Fold each of these.
Amino acid sequence: MFFDKIESLGTWARNTKNKLTKSEFECKLIEATQDKNWNARPELVDEICKKSHNFEHFQQLMDHIWESLAQKEKRYKSVIRTLSLVEYVIKLGAQRCTDSFQQNIYKIRKLQHFHFIEKGVDKG
């Protein structure tokens, strides 16, 4: 119980720091790809896809996606959520996002052999 409170305090501190130092769009990207058990809200993903048509947001989106996909195995939930975001962006986002994914397909293909075991349970 004590460790849960410390963890929630740390999460609160990270969220506050992000809100003060990052743009609104970057905060939404972080929320969409955070290390949670469930996928991001559809409204959030839809908004990210719409903003991918703006060149500045496109650059931030792609940088964040490639950074998120390169995370360590213990952050597998974030990688899965990022792949889910990639799927939505391909379907609903700007064409240049799809072009970027095609040009960098090797970064996604390396995840085909992704394997992570946590406490004796295969997680991915």
Note: Strands lie at 117-118, 121-122.
Amino acid sequence: MLIPDRAPRTPGIARDLTRAHGRATNLERRFVRPRTLLLVIDGVGSEITTGIKGEATVHFDCKIIGWRLLADQEGDIVIDLWKSDYDSYPPDVGDTITAADKPTLSSADKAEDYVLTDWTTEVAEGDTFRINVDSVATVTRVLLTLKLLA
């Protein structure tokens, strides 16, 4: 399959080609725009507390394809993500996108998941995420990275 140089940047085209060939070529990578959204929760030397920790707005349409947690030390943390559009701001627990499959560390300092079971993965330009720590033990700083496909 040939893709003309002026083809629109359509994630579906590259995804379909990658599935067919097993790996993306340089030409196919041009049409896929992987991006990351970095969210840091810092207890400033003390154990992180539960509750709302911040917000981030995404300024492009995309799809969440995975997450990664990296902590400063082994411990436990469960993070929930709530999302709303501008008109429905602010998001609350009823706007969770994670279902029961929340980003979680359990006696670990790192974890990742690229099989987002029951997640709401579609993100529209202007959507705002609110980050909520449901539970935590020992962790004083954690980086949550959302991998996005735009």
Note: Residues 1-22 have pLDDT under 50 and may be disordered.
Amino acid sequence: MINASDSPDKCQIPFSNVCALLIVLSFSIFSLFSNVHAAQVSHLFDITSGNDKALKLPSDVVVNSRGEIIIVDGGNHRVLVFTSKGKFSKEIGATDPLDVRLQQPLGIGIDANDQIYVVNKGKKRINIYHRKGKLLHSFETRNHQGLFVPVDVAVSADVKTILVTNNTHHQIALFSNKGVYQASWGKEGSNAEEFRYPATLVTDKQSNAYVVDVLNTQVKILNPNGSLQTTVAEWGVLPGQLFRPKGVALDDEGNIFVSDSYLNLVQIYAHNKKFQSVLSNPSGYQHFDSPTGLTIDQKRRLIVTEMRANKVSVFLLL
């Protein structure tokens, strides 16, 4: 769900030198661990265009209760809805008032009622849409320090609280379901309840928040009060480690799926937060092209946005 301007690199030295070497080495290192247990997937189909225009830098995706696939097509400043089989259905937001119309949309969330929440990054707003696509409400991402750049959005299980990742102040901002600012969690840093460019987030059935903390190369799990429960993963290029995490999704068993936009892999951590496997196909590890946002639907389909490939890939988890 993030582009380069949203989250600086873990390596603070020129990427073309040491960082590039680490990436190349990581693929060799991963190949040495071919005996690592791998979660198998079968590729179903790709979505590469909608409404007669090719996708451009798709960044995030959700699925509603009808199985419709809803994609943030950020480079084209739009949100698209597709049937469960990948056929284009409609565009959301194209007729919104100009002052809240989508500009550089980035993240997306969905609640128990199928209402859709879109990060309108360019306008520093969150747009809320009815499940049929009508704009219901839009509010500024403003906390006690002022307007901030939003990255992703999620909703509590009881649909009372909206959580927004704040890249400006390295925090998680909480709003009421009406868009009224309530509180913020965290600050910039590397300690337990601090963040360095928080990116994507999801909530579980208990309203715990799973936050991708990009430069701290972890997923941090916070309880509904914002206290840290535990962390998942650490920096590195070995299986189970993360180099530049971007997306996070949960399945019905509580397993945690994390995309890494530099390693171009998705790794899975068990409900006990321990590393479990690397996503694979029958030929080996399943490689992506800059995977960012991802989600898992009720049919155990894993849907991954591949930002550089300008496509969204749909897999069946076996």
Note: The domain at 15-317 is CATH 2.120.10.30 (Neuraminidase).
